[in-house]
Batch of 2 targets.
Target 1
Amino acid sequence: MIVYGRNAVREALRGRREVGAVWATDHAARERWLTGVEVMRVGADEVERRAGSDAHQGIVADAADYAYVEAAELLGRSEPLIVALDEVQDPQNLGSIARSAECAGATGLVLPRHRSAAVTPAVCRASSGAVEHLAIARVRNLVDFLAEAKRAGCWAYGTAAEADADYRSPDYRGGVVCVFGSEGRGLRPRVAAACDALISVPLRGRIESLNVGVAVAVLMYGILQQRDALDGNP
Amino acid sequence: MIVYGRNAVREALRGRREVGAVWATDHAARERWLTGVEVMRVGADEVERRAGSDAHQGIVADAADYAYVEAAELLGRSEPLIVALDEVQDPQNLGSIARSAECAGATGLVLPRHRSAAVTPAVCRASSGAVEHLAIARVRNLVDFLAEAKRAGCWAYGTAAEADADYRSPDYRGGVVCVFGSEGRGLRPRVAAACDALISVPLRGRIESLNVGVAVAVLMYGILQQRDALDGNP
């Protein structure tokens, strides 16, 4: 699988999968983190041809296929904090969600196998390489996954703009799965019904939605902030 | 000033400035929020020519110049929560910061007059129209503004990846100014020195930075979460 863009290639080199050839322009090849890496110097047109995109920032690499994890592995971790996505199809949104989840220290990300963006080169790029370090699982059916998560002791929270409950009101100790829908459409009714509760990140201004990658970060950091406060003041 | 893109035009129509002519393709003109608005039906090429960008989503409007507010007005509000930017030059980043700040309910945004992105059509688009509702001030000199804010009773917090203090440790009651630098370069030393304290949003994964719009949202919501908790448990 091709990986392009500075951060995407850098994190692939630091990450779990094997990286083969790297092609870069003279300018991009000067990056300090490429020290010790064998780089083929080529023109920008050759990088673009190999990347299949003009968002390559002068560098492209040939890496092993992206390695997904098993959803059961995520559920087996201690007090997992899992982000699950319901039909998020936009690669930019999936990338920014992955970046937010990785930075916040989420246990992992769960994507449905169908009608959802997968980890493509565009997603690697949009995530700034976060997908290389984040555990990502694909599941056949999101509703079944939520049932499995609940059997494993997790609470499932769906995020919905119209939910009455503020994201700060639940007690997030223990295992947690937070489900986000696509921008615009939100959660499908069957998915919302499979959650233990619906929560929202309150909008205190006049526009109607946060970017979904931003909403993921606010919720993840908010949960961790609350867990820390509860641990500190039992 | 030209405004293009669905959310940008919608919020301009709902916002403070006067909107003159609106041009839209047949498809874009069907939006429900355009009911009652006089729209000139034109082809996509005409919309693109007027927008000067291909990110127009089929709609462009002619609006009055963007109306900035005075920084002193922001400082005069009760317990203001102000975001100040140090040389953030990327319109996408400024747009996403404005969107995050507006959604979180920040009092306003302060931009230096020089070496900083201003509110351009690209910023209106990238902010999803949030700039129409957010109070934005331009200042001659950011260090002078921080001194003025401190005289007005605010605490100034600079965000820096290398700061030891976690963003959750200060007591944010009272007036607060949070200063963010550009992605990559961070705060200039003179600006960092003008802050009362430096704080960071902890990265719990392996990649090195949150998107700056995401960092703004995490900090704003975190401050409000803490203020609410402190008010609830005095």
Target 2
Amino acid sequence: MIKIVVDAMGGDHAPVEIVKGAVLALQEKKNFSLIFTGDEALVREELRKYKYDASRVEVVHCSEVITNDDVPTQAVRTKRDSSLVVGLKLLKERDDVAGFVSAGSTGAVLAGGIMFVGRIKGVMRPALCPAIPNASGSRTLLCDCGANAECKPSMLAQFAVMASAYARSAYGIKNPRVGLLSNGTEQHKGDLLHQEANALIREAKNVNFIGNVEGRDIMYGDADVVVADGFSGNIALKSIEGCGKTVSDILSKAFRKSFGSRISYLFAKKQLKKLKLMLDYSAMGGTIFLGLQKTVIKSHGSSMAKSITPSVLQAVDAYEGGLIRSLTESFENLVSQEGGDE
Amino acid sequence: MIKIVVDAMGGDHAPVEIVKGAVLALQEKKNFSLIFTGDEALVREELRKYKYDASRVEVVHCSEVITNDDVPTQAVRTKRDSSLVVGLKLLKERDDVAGFVSAGSTGAVLAGGIMFVGRIKGVMRPALCPAIPNASGSRTLLCDCGANAECKPSMLAQFAVMASAYARSAYGIKNPRVGLLSNGTEQHKGDLLHQEANALIREAKNVNFIGNVEGRDIMYGDADVVVADGFSGNIALKSIEGCGKTVSDILSKAFRKSFGSRISYLFAKKQLKKLKLMLDYSAMGGTIFLGLQKTVIKSHGSSMAKSITPSVLQAVDAYEGGLIRSLTESFENLVSQEGGDE
């Protein structure tokens, strides 16, 4: 049985919500087990609250925690007995461990992932790739959304390859449509980085490039994959989050105001629930860190149990879909193509 | 009485909706009159549909139209008798003309604005500055959102100065809070451009800088002004538009489905209307092109009358608030400061 490591100490609501969410995931799927890394006494205390198959849960004690106040690159070097570093090492070293989930410091997950798990051969820079619910009822993969604030055109072309492989293996999309996030749909739009990236992605093999797309297309769902430099991808993601949160708050207020509007809520309930779920990024699960040799999922820092459960299942799904194999093959082809061109 | 020039031929619904929207604006405020530029026969035909004070409407005939298929910089040079070029020249040449409104090609409005109206002394690059409704019930000014895809740090510092002057004169905000759009709130976040811009804005006089802000803060409303390079500002704006439109569509569907939900709509109507209005960027009015010697307002290409009316009033308000004087003074101070430093 494969195992998923969960960093029990990372996140604003650790370990309470982390343990709860992960244990709930055990009920959803029966084909995996959990390894928690963290303060064993605290984790065991939380575990006692739930009923679960004890043979599917292991706890590895760690004496340290990496917080958001730590400098990420320094923390992953010095806090060797932290729940994050120990977890990433388990992922790297043990063949039966298929994935790692943390709601801890993003910077530390990124730095630690590269340092301890390592990149797939040929990958220049791993990238964060969240799946954003869209108007057509599916998800838009946005890659990168913050791991790399400074990008080169060739990095953007690699993001297109990585996210396409992810769309195929984790979402079953046979020929994912890939757009490049820019300030207009015309090919000449954007700064030099994006103009050059457009040309490179256009030539990339196994990428179904549909050209430049705009910020609004992320939620319209006309592309399966939207490629972005980490700076503007992050701005797009958070702009959508801000709009979604604002709308959710106004809706909640609208239906709390009067008895009449509470009644009215009952009538429109199904659609409104769908909408709130769509806008609630905390329930979207985690963001995959694509390009590493094994699956690393970063859950939102403010994750409650309901975000941890889908994050854990996401790691299981990635294993079942053969994500890492698919990514590795994509880059083997890329490397051999490039080799052939020389 | 001051005059506002309206490009009657620009936009997807010109001249029908443009003329209608502008004439409706005449009823809202009594202290200005209109000059339409465009095909006189067509404009007069539309005008015949409405009741208005004929002494407040003038039509200047033009034989050409600039479309979205034209190359902007070339079109403003060659189509000298287009409604857009003739309108911008009237704005420049006549002292009684205070503003210009067009729903035509954005590129042509930008190129024509710089060429025929000219920049305020000291302004490196004019910028598009839309006012986005936010959660606190006011507006967030986002500057630049697309006029300048490639920016230098000093340009971003100027956007902070320009948008602050606009917030003071048009929105009555005494000490507008200015944030820099980046991929994190910490000062070191962002690429080199944004790190340098952060340092420059921090030192700018008459700018109340609150540091880096994230995409989500645009709609939260914790800053009055959000400064952005035109590339990522455009992505933020359109990401918000896409989220808003998607939510609006789902809401409409939710309340159309059944008799019960139509009844329910009545109860929550007020809040929902407020929400739809907030998300409907077509009703937001136009986007000001800041940094020119006179007020130029770009209305959305798909503008209907309900978008043109607020755009015309926005031009009147800018005049009444003394926007151009305030901008000119800001840059006089800036230039003399810089002179003093040398």
